[in-house]
Design goal:
The structure holds 2 protein chains of 2 kinds. Chain A is an all-beta fold. Chain A is about 0% helix and about 50% strand. Chain A has no helices and 11 strands. In chain A, the strands form 2 sheets. In chain A, strands 2, 4, 5, 6, 9, 10 and 11 form a 7-stranded mixed sheet that branches. Chain A has a 4-stranded antiparallel sheet with strand order 1-3-8-7, with no helix packed on it. Chain A is globular and about 40 Å long. Chain A starts with a strand and ends with a strand. Chain B is mostly beta strands. Chain B contains no helices and 11 strands. In chain B, the strands form 2 sheets. In chain B, strands 2, 4, 5, 9, 10 and 11 form a 6-stranded mixed sheet that branches. Chain B has a 5-stranded antiparallel sheet with strand order 1-3-8-7-6, with no helix packed on it. Classes of the chains: A mainly beta, B mainly beta. Chains A and B meet through β4, β5, β9 and β10 of A and β5 and β10 of B.
Chain lengths: ~120, ~110
């Protein structure tokens, strides 16, 4: 079974540019999460999808971030325009509803560097 | 909002020694999860604790959930080089609040 995949693995952009990150969850997982880890700090929750609906987006930093999950499969996270403080590793995770554990399966992350 | 604190932030261990990392929450948790992230990798689920006072073991790893369900610990015995990485506690449920993690390095 394929795990959670993320694309790209690395992205280096200049301040003011736009970047779109993609996440493909494990097939059949209705729950999809985005997290971010800024260097040296804790992993912070950004938002949670259940299928195509945003269940909780309380962690989104500001309106420069837009997440979508059309069709309830893969998700994208767009940052527009990017700022220096957006640099970090963006993780996507998925979880199966009703699983005995609340285990979240993390993707490899996208390392975003804003110059 | 809920805050999860972990100590120590760094743990440098001699191979073969034991160590413990601690996790404290500002609020009572319905459950707590532990994840491990290897250098350059991504968080991987280790275990979930649900019951007050619960203790679970995975080989050389012992996880404990406090009686008040506000703290947890991970104890590793006979540390090996494969234990290198950052250990995170997180909780609860779907919206994981992670601690800053304990980054473990091992000297042979």
């Amino acid at each position: 079974e394929a795990g959670v995949t993320q694309f790209p693995s690395h992205s280096v952009i200049e301040k003011g540019q736009t970047v779109t990150l993609r996440c493909d969850p494990i097939s059949g997982h209705d729950n999809l999460y985005w997290y971010r880890r800024v260097m040296g700090k804790e992993i912070k929750f950004l938002l949670h999808f259940v299928k195509e609906s945003k269940q909780d987006e309380s962690g989104m930093p500001n309106n420069r971030f837009l997440a979508e999950r059309t069709g309830g499969t893969y998700s994208t996270l767009k940052v527009q325009p990017a700022e220096l403080e957006d640099s970090g590793v963006y993780f996507c995770a998925s979880r199966q509803t009703g699983a005995s554990y609340n285990e979240q399966f993390f993707g490899p992350g996208t390392r975003l560097t804003v110059l | 909002g809920q805050q999860v604190m972990q100590i120590p932030q760094y743990q440098h261990v001699q191979e073969g020694e034991d160590f413990t990392t601690y996790c404290n929450s500002s609020t009572t948790l319905s459950n707590i999860q532990w994840y491990k992230q290897r250098p350059g990798g991504h968080p991987v689920f280790l275990i979930q604790l649900v019951k007050s006072g619960e203790v679970k073991k995975q080989k050389r790893l012992t996880f404990q959930f406090g009686e008040a369900k506000k703290n947890s610990s991970l104890h590793i015995t006979a540390t090996q080089t494969t234990d290198v990485g950052t250990y995170f506690c997180a909780g609860p449920n779907y919206k994981l609040s992670f601690g800053a993690g304990t980054t473990v390095t091992v000297r042979a």
